[in-house]
Amino acid sequence: MKIFSGWHRFIFGLLLLFILIHMYSVMDMYKNSKMEVPHKQLNKKLDHLILGPAAGKGLSNRLQCEGTKALNRTHASNSGLSLDESIAFVTVFTIYNSSLNNVNDKSSSTVVGNASYNKVDRSMAVLNAFINFIQVAMPQSKLFIVTDPVSDLSVHRNRVSLYPIDGEYSRDKLMLQRIRSYIIFLETKLQKLHQKPRNITHYIFTDSDIAVVDDLGHIFSDHPNFDLALTFRNNKAQPLNSGFIAVRGTPDSILRAKLFLQEVLKIYSSKYLKASRMLGDQLALAWVVKSKPHFDASRFAKPQAFSEDISGTSVLFLPCALYNWTPPEGAGQFHGMPLDVKVVHFKGSRKRLMLESWNFFSSSTDIEDMLCLILGSGRTKYDF
Ligand SMILES: *[C@@H]1O[C@H](CO)[C@@H](O)[C@H](O)[C@H]1NC(C)=O
Ligand SMILES: *[C@@H]1O[C@H](CO)[C@@H](O)[C@H](O)[C@H]1NC(C)=O
Ligand SMILES: *[C@@H]1O[C@H](CO)[C@@H](O)[C@H](O)[C@H]1NC(C)=O
Ligand SMILES: *[C@@H]1O[C@H](CO)[C@@H](O)[C@H](O)[C@H]1NC(C)=O
Fold first, then answer.
1. Which residue has its alpha carbon closest to ligand 3 atom 5?
2. Cβ-count burial of 92 within 10 angstroms (0-12 exposed, 13-18 middle, 19+ buried)?
3. At residue 94, does pLDDT exceed 60?
């Protein structure tokens, strides 16, 4: 009897296990059929776009889409700048052909549209898309590409110039070097202004994996008193993103912005050198900002611009929701895309989407439809 009930238990257990496994896979199938982005694919990097639903459906201040057709028209901003003011973008970018041992290695090539890219081509394609977007949204602006003097970079585009600055641009030092290069860049511009006063050029320092989709001149005309602007989001540990920093082009503001960045560099070097190579500058930025006595960090919870004097530098805080919008990966809080978004950031593994977006825009020339493509496709990790 004892043996029998042991058997019974065993068979019963087996049956239960079988039922559970079956139930799980049915549930999984059900889940997958309901979700536009199947669970398994979230961790796999895809080599083609997945157009999912556009988040923010029914919210009156969010872009509404039907597939890649936008139901809302956004209005382009006026720059509001006077005739003697202009804007220059500044990005740090290096490329070393020696890092490419096997140019013809097909396994490392990636296809987007009808073009195929190796590792070096991929970086160059992102840089070119970055330039393209700027030249559409702000055709009057200039662009400086700050680069390692020994970099193999060559770019031949109108209004774009290389700006070599000595330094250590290896991958694990790049974020530290970037702040150093920004400081040197501002120092040089300041010296030139002192030698010979000229028309005002405001500077916007950005990552090169962003798409500027509207004129940004209004930042300087709507907020006439800031020296340096940063973008913030509602994230306790990392409220500030370093991928977008605007600096007013007057000698006083350039000087104060430089002093602020020098403080950030000091904190980065003394406190966060060991932080993951992508995070140190953002942690240092947040440390410097929060070191101001009585700084009210709860303002980061609301996507509304505000200013604050931080050790003598007037800092304007702009919401990432508009000036550094990133589609969140996977699940998570996501309320769609604000109608007046200005800058889209293709962080991490979204760079394929940046190129696909540019290709889409070149054939449709419709920014809003392109934003629908980005909104619907931005949750997936891509391979680029
Ligand atoms: C955006 O479009 C939707 C659908 O046409 C409409 O209901 C909504 O009011 C529009 N929002 C704005 C701010 O125009
Ligand atoms: C400087 O600004 C004036 C207008 O105030 C404009 O006529 C002139 O072309 C500008 N110079 C340069 C080099 O942009
Ligand atoms: C495909 O190639 C043709 C010819 O080279 C080019 O004109 C076209 O823009 C390309 N299409 C895409 C989507 O890249
Ligand atoms: C490095 O590669 C780029 C892009 O492929 C090319 O334009 C450049 O001429 C190359 N530079 C050298 C020094 O080979």
1. 114
2. buried
3. yes
Residue 214 CA to residue 136 CA, distance in Å, equals: 9
Averaged confidence pLDDT in the chain: 87
Q: 108 CA distance to ligand 3 centroid (A)? A: 21
Q: What's this model's pTM, rounded to 2 decimal places?
A: 0.85
Beta strands in the chain (DSSP E): 65-66, 69-70, 85-92, 110-112, 115-117, 142-147, 160-164, 200-206, 210-212, 228-232, 240-247, 306-310, 313-319, 343-345
Who wins on pLDDT, 23 or 241? 241
Alpha-carbon distance 112 to 122, whole Å?
10
Residue-range domains of the chain with CATH: 46-75+325-384 (no CATH), 79-323 (3.90.550.10)
CA of 51 to the centre of ligand 3 (A): 22
Cβ of 199 less than 6 Å from ligand 2: yes
Residue 72 corresponds to which tokens in the numbers above?
């809302």
Is the pLDDT score of 109 beyond 70?
A: yes
The alpha carbon of 136 and the centre of ligand 3 are apart by a number of angstroms equal to 19
131 compared with 61, residue with greater pLDDT: 131
List, in sequence order, every residue forming a beta bridge with 314; answer none if it has no partner. 309
Q: Which residue ranges have their beta carbon within 6 Å of ligand 1? A: 60, 64, 71-72, 339
User: Which atom in ligand 2 lies closest to the alpha carbon of residue 84?
Assistant: 2
With a 6 A CB cut-off, is 359 part of the ligand 3 pocket?
A: yes
pLDDT at res. 118 = 87
- The pLDDT of 351-362, averaged and rounded, is 95
Closest ligand to the CA of 84: 2
Q: Kindly state the average pLDDT of the residues 155-170.
A: 96
Q: Rounded to an integer, what distance in angstroms lies between the CA atom of residue 115 and that of residue 107?
A: 15
Ligand closest to 65 (CA) is: 1
Give kind and range of the element (H or E) at residue 11.
helix 2-34
CA separation, residue 246 to residues 119, 182, 214, 257, 339 (Å): 30, 11, 15, 9, 22
Closest C-alpha residue for ligand 1 atom 2: 72
Residue 363 CA to ligand 3 centre (angstroms)? 10
The answer to whether 374 and 353 are in contact (CB under 8 A) is: yes
Answer with the residue of higher pLDDT: 1 or 236.
236
pLDDT at 103 over 60: no
* C-alpha distance from residue 20 to each of 9, 17, 25 (Å): 16, 5, 9
